[in-house]
Design goal:
179 residues; 2 strands
Amino acid sequence: MKILNKSSLLGLFIVMMGQPVAAEDFVEALQELNQAKADWFVNAFKRSKDLDEVTETIPFQGMPVTFRHQHWKIPHESVCRDVWNNQKQYAKCTIAAKQLFVSLCNTPQYKRASIEKSRSRMFCNTAETYQPVQTTVKPSGSAGQISGRQITDECRQAKLDAFMNPSTKTANYRDQVCN
């Protein structure tokens, strides 16, 4: 009859309370406890260094903002990747993402423990460097200037649209935006 239950701290508690237990069961329970502690430390270390690539979706302003991060860095191309094929939705999502990153950078709850500080720095760095995609290209004679990144993103989206929906209209739009 086993008195000690595998992977149960209750078994160790019973041993500590003076109840009889087989030596091999006690050793096995201690090994399991040590393994659980080692696993906990490894997982805590991985979380603290953000070693595993993680995909997160955070609802913001009624829109789910999805992005990946690893080593406390968010690759810009991963932001809103799930709606990349819908130009209007993608543009709205990237604008919401920029605002989300700024908001999370300024959130006091992320300023306490070391993981939260690293997370806060990740959001602050991304908030400083991330540029949302614009959906419209202004004529060259307009007062507003557009960045090369916006033109590149617009061209990339136009090429994708033309590939996904081959028509004269999408091809003409692609040619207009990319040339």
